[in-house]
Design goal:
This protein has helices at residues 3-17, 23-33, 40-52, 54-64, 66-76, 81-105, 110-114, 117-141, 164-174, 184-194, 199-227, 233-237, 239-264, 270-288, 299-304. With 306 residues, it is mostly helical. Helix 6 (81-105) runs parallel beside helix 9 (164-174), helix 8 (117-141) runs antiparallel to helix 14 and helix 9 packs antiparallel against helix 10 (184-194).
Amino acid sequence: MHLIDAIILGLIEGLTEYIPVSSTGHLIIASALLGLDHPPQTKAAVDAFIIVIQGGAILAVLGLYWQRVRQMLVGLLGREPVGRRLLINLVIAFLPAAIVGLLLDSLVGLEAVLFRTVPVMGALALGGVVMILLTPWQRRFFHGQESEEPDEVHSFVDIDHLTWRRALLIGMFQCLAMWPGTSRSMVTIVGGMVVGMRPKQAAEFSFLLGLPTLGAACVYKGARNMLGEGPNMFQVLGAGELIVGMIVATIAAALAVKWLVSYLGRHGVALFGWYRLALCALLGILIWQGVVPDLGAAPEAAAAVP
């Protein structure tokens, strides 16, 4: 991997991690165009690299939402009830993905089954349709201002008044992100809107939920790569490339988060649905033309793609 490759991947990861357009779909295209999808040893290192530089996205949210993080830390000490409630809700929302992720990781070959052309493109397209239809449905189903009685049926609810049941439902939605091409940010924003959060509030809860979720993935994937057999990502790609990729991802993620919050404060999520459908079509064309290897194809066949 060259330094420019690390910059490009860091930029794509940072811009797409929190925007509901599927970082997987973008990174599949980018890795193939950069020639990083083969040989198998390089691809394995790049896969780990992409997960680890998510640490940059974590740093971006920590910086932008430091007041929320501080509120939760004070709540942990028993001096801030709202912060304690938010922290508890984030833990509750994180647990389903943590449990399901460990269970699925033990199923040998499952990732290879899901990481194929049809499942990835299907997730992109289905997610796009859901996002196009979601805002009109929410406007019909929910009404009124954010409620201080969060159990009130069909009323909007904000982050500070989210109940543990609604947080758990968002966490169950997050489990869907284990299907490649779905997008963790998409399913958590959708989950937040389904339980009655406005798009901007749902996105902010999704950002905060990404702290434990992405953090756990970074540590787990990084440790597994470092302790596994064969050369690790530092040996294959270089430590400098990893550092640069993380710095770029941090800056790009901060810009993306600020833009997304501003956009969702005025608009719904339909734009991202149409974008996902366009990305699905582009990915299909690139695979059909042989520019991007057929996902799930045998390593020999993938390596033959120019």
